[in-house]
Specification:
Strands 2, 5, 8, 10, 11 and 13 form a six-stranded mixed β-sheet that branches. A five-stranded mixed β-sheet has the order 6-4-1-3-7. The relative contact order is 0.09. The radius of gyration is 45 Å and the shape is rod-shaped. Helices cover 18% and strands 48% of the residues. The chain folds into four domains: 44 residues; 87 residues, RNA Polymerase Alpha Subunit, Chain A, domain 2; 90 residues, YbbR-like domain (RNA Polymerase Alpha Subunit, Chain A, domain 2, Beta Complex); 94 residues, RNA Polymerase Alpha Subunit, Chain A, domain 2. It is an alpha+beta fold. The N and C termini lie far apart (172 Å).
């Protein structure tokens, strides 16, 4: 009987609880939500924390202006609130401040003071975290007029220790040859050109085309990020003057030695052209300027052409100076 009595009391309690919930359920649901909200607020206050960090600042300049502020500008901000957010390094690293300078109209401002505020913070939760302090409380944003101009593009490459010794860059073509850059007027007016990133030439022996980025520069923005460069590679030929080379005399083989010859100009300068490295090591004994007197049979003074013989056929004779010399020829009686 006792068991049945207990079961009856439990059943009566369930019925009364059901009737209570059924009666005005929305008010009871509202009361439960209020209780949960009170619990959340109390629990948050019980785990509140304080933390200070340096927050990076981005500056938005008004139309016609550009910010001259350093890209590493920061504001020291002190936060209080939920411990779970303030101790999360990922969430805290996403915080940043965006400072917008209002439109300035026709006035020529060089500096505009912007006060720090919570509304400038990005990445901060809407609830649970408060800002208690900014240091500094305001920033004087340096401004300059925005301008643009067209400048030529120059190729950035290094021939030394990259190209093989006997090769050189003979021509460079860039498409497009000019780009438009924009930035602060005080900086843009002194910019004469813009360079590409370094173009690799290691062990290159043939012409090639290459897409390269333009070299970045603080405050200067080109209207495009890349250009096409055509590098023409050819063998590196140079010229070298061999000074005061002695002029030799070419005779007919077997001819009798009965000729007395006087050279009015016994030495000439010979200009050679050939591979750069081999030309640099060329010895003066490797070239032999000469005159040919075999057609001359009578005594007299003659003006004759100077020729040059060289041991290495990879060189060519560009110039002999003087190209013609005077000689005095006297044939003696043979015994």
């Amino acid at each position: 009987m006792a068991i049945n009595s207990s079961g009856g009391r439990a059943g009566d309690f369930s019925k009364r609880l059901f009737r209570m919930i059924k009666s005005d359920p929305w008010r009871k649901l509202f009361a439960i939500c209020c209780a949960m909200l009170v619990y959340y607020v109390i629990s948050n206050k019980s785990i509140n924390n304080t933390r200070s960090i340096d927050v990076p600042v981005e500056f938005v300049a008004p139309q016609g202006y550009v910010s001259m502020m350093p890209p590493d500008t920061e504001v020291h901000v002190t936060f209080t609130g939920n411990n779970s957010f303030l101790n999360d390094p990922v969430q805290m690293s996403k915080l940043r401040m965006v400072m917008e300078v209002p439109e300035l109209g026709a006035a020529n401002f060089r500096e505009y003071r912007v006060t720090c505020s919570r509304e400038q913070l990005r990445g901060l939760p809407a609830f649970g975290v408060q800002v208690s302090e900014f240091r500094p409380t305001a920033i004087a944003v340096k401004l300059d007029k925005l301008t643009n101009k067209d400048v030529p593009v120059i190729a950035n490459y290094n021939v030394e220790n990259e190209l093989p010794p006997e090769y050189a860059v003979s021509n460079v073509s860039i498409i497009p040859p000019k780009v438009r850059i924009s930035g602060p007027a005080s900086i843009i007016r002194d910019v004469k050109n813009i360079s590409t990133e370094k173009i690799p030439l290691t062990n290159v022996t043939e012409s090639f085309e290459y897409t390269t980025r333009l070299r970045s520069s603080e405050f200067i923005q080109p209207d495009r990020g890349e250009v096409r460069v055509k590098m023409e590679i050819s063998k590196a030929y140079e010229s070298r003057v061999m000074k005061s080379a002695a002029v030799r005399i070419l005779k007919v083989p077997g001819a009798q030695d009965n000729v007395k010859l006087e050279l009015m100009t016994p030495h000439v300068d010979v200009t050679l052209r050939g591979p750069r490295t081999r030309l640099a090591s060329l010895k003066s004994a490797s070239i032999r300027p000469y005159i040919d007197i075999s057609p001359l049979n009578e005594n007299g003074v003659y003006t004759v052409q100077v020729y040059c013989w060289q041991d290495d056929n990879s060189f060519s004779v560009e110039k002999i100076y003087p190209p013609r010399i005077q000689i005095k020829l006297t044939r003696t009686e043979s015994n």
